[in-house]
């Protein structure tokens, strides 16, 4: 028999350990491991390289500053260069899902280089009532923004396909909306992603800082104190326990937030935790430019270390990027208050984890694969299709050169954005091949597969329930 592809001589990271065997691929699936080299149409020399399950970026914003039919092309291009094989979009739609969702899904069909799916953000009671419509259309996870209400309810929604008009909107995600979303998600057996910042506290803190004419990333961080995260975490976890809902906290980057989550887990709350690369390597103590403005803010170097410690201990389950595909002209204002929150990062996430994590002994390769692939696949019901290199799974494989050194530049990834908050960083450890369902999408920083190869991932409902004090996954 002649197989489609064989990856020869790489170190393969499997759930039970690392093996040195050849990966045999056929019909988009991993079919066996062998020490032989069977007849094949394409052979990849993996000598000296590491094969890991394709990373899943569970937290990506695109389609906000350019329409989805174009944003899917540019941002999946950046993702493929960075070794990501599946991207999960944060849908932000202004109106009824039954009206707004189909055009977004249709425009995505022929535009992605890699596989993709989405979370549906909930802003109104009407959208709460249509959550079942999302599930019927394979969107089986939901997001709530506890930071968007009252005086701080401004948000940009997703653009309409083929339109470049910014969708600037005012929303009011009150505690009632939060509770109703959690209740409905629990009944649908879907997880809820939570941006945990108390909006009233944030509004007060920002108003005070502006009145004192404070500026810079330190002022931004202090105006949105980690205690405001703590307050929101406590509030939503009460709802989660009441309705037995799985909560997934996005972009956790402070010691105080992590400590509160430990308490909530001890009370029996079903909680998963995501962090982002910027909470590992960026701090307002070491830089003070407006490029690094994000919500929640980057914190102190002490918080950076707390994040690394929590990743190592298993308290943090996943790493997403909170990637925002925007332009420098939109990003930087006259001060930190007028600058846009959020920045691109999908292409550089894996190299940061390899360079600053694995190669420095902060996490192991096994922990890396859990954080980037296995855990998000399990949490968001893509397992056993995605998230592992065992036989029968999709042949989503990212091949790493752990010794390759490369400087981060804004033009490296070919995305929509024309800047990088990580510009100039020299990182050691990069993806050199990105394989999705048995096809090479990117190789040596060049995308070789055309847009439209990527497919919408079919997901089930009923996510796995976490267990144990750190909520590890089975």
Summarize the structure.
This protein has 474 residues and is α/β, with parallel strands linked by helices. It is 31% helix and 23% strand.
Mean pLDDT, to the nearest integer, reads 96
The amount of helix comes to 25-40%
SS-derived structural category: alpha/beta
Give the N-to-C terminal Cα separation: 36 Å
Assembly state (oligomeric): single chain
In terms of per-residue confidence, which ranges show pLDDT below 50 for 5 or more consecutive residues?
none
Strand content: 15-25%
Strand order of the largest sheet: 17-16-15-14-11-10-9-8-18
What is the radius of gyration? 21 Å
Characterize the overall form.
globular
Largest sheet: 9 strands, parallel
Structural account:
The protein has helices at residues 68-81, 97-108, 125-129, 131-136, 175-188, 199-211, 217-223, 226-243, 255-266, 278-281, 301-313, 328-331, 349-358, 365-379, and strands at residues 3-8, 11-14, 17-19, 22-26, 29-34, 40-45, 50-53, 56-61, 86-91, 115-121, 142-145, 154-157, 167-170, 192-195, 247-249, 271-275, 318-319, 323-324, 397-407, 426-436, 439-443, 446-447. By secondary structure, it is an alpha/beta fold. A 9-stranded parallel β-sheet has the order 17-16-15-14-11-10-9-8-18. The chain has a 7-stranded mixed β-sheet with strand order 3-2-7-19-20-21-22, covered by helices on one side. It has a 4-stranded mixed β-sheet with strand order 5-4-1-6, with no helix packed on it. α6 (199-211) packs across α7 and α8 (226-243) runs parallel beside α9. The protein starts with a strand and ends in a 27-residue tail after the last strand.
């Amino acid at each position: 028999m002649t197989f489609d592809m064989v990856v020869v001589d790489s170190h393969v990271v499997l759930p039970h350990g690392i093996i040195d065997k050849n990966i045999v691929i056929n019909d988009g699936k991993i079919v066996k491991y062998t020490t032989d080299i069977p007849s094949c149409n394409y052979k990849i020399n993996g000598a000296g390289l590491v094969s890991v399950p394709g990373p899943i970026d569970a937290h990506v914003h695109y389609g906000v500053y350019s329409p989805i039919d174009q944003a899917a092309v540019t941002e999946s291009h950046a993702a493929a260069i960075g070794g990501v094989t599946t991207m999960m979009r944060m849908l932000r739609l202004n109106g009824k899902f039954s009206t707004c969702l189909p055009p977004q899904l249709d425009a995505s069909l022929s535009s992605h280089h890699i596989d993709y799916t989405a979370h549906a953000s909930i802003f109104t009671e009407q959208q709460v009532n249509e959550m079942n419509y999302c599930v019927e259309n394979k969107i089986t996870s939901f997001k709530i923004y506890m930071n968007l209400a009252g005086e701080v309810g401004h948000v940009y929604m997703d653009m309409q396909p083929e339109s470049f008009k910014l969708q600037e909107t005012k929303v009011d995600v009150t505690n009632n909306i939060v509770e109703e979303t959690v209740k409905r998600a629990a009944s649908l057996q879907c997880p809820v992603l939570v941006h945990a910042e108390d909006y009233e506290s944030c509004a007060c803190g920002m108003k005070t800082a502006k009145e004192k004419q404070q500026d810079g990333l330190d002022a931004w961080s202090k105006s949105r104190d980690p205690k405001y995260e703590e307050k929101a975490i406590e509030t939503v976890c009460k709802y989660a326990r009441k309705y037995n809902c799985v909560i997934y906290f996005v972009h956790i980057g402070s010691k105080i937030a992590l400590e509160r989550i430990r308490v909530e887990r001890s009370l029996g709350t079903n909680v998963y935790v995501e962090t982002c690369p910027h909470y590992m390597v960026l701090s307002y103590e070491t830089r003070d430019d407006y490029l690094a403005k994000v919500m929640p803010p980057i914190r102190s170097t002490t918080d950076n270390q707390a994040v690394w410690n929590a990743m190592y201990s298993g308290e943090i389950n996943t790493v997403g990027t909170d990637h925002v595909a925007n332009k420098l002209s939109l990003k930087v204002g006259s001060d930190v208050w007028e600058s846009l929150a959020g920045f691109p990062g999908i292409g550089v996430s894996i190299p940061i984890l390899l360079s600053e994590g694995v190669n420095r002994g902060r996490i192991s390769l096994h922990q890396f694969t859990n954080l980037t692939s296995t855990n998000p696949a399990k949490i968001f019901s893509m397992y056993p299709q995605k998230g592992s290199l065992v036989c029968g799974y999709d042949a989503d494989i990212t091949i790493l050169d752990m010794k390759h050194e490369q400087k981060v530049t804004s033009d490296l990834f070919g995305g929509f954005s024309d800047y990088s908050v990580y510009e100039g960083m020299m990182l050691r450890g990069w993806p050199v091949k990105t394989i999705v369902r048995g096809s090479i999408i990117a190789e040596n920083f060049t995308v070789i597969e055309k847009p439209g190869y990527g497919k919408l991932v079919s997901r089930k409902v009923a996510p796995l329930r976490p267990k144990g004090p750190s909520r590890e996954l089975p």
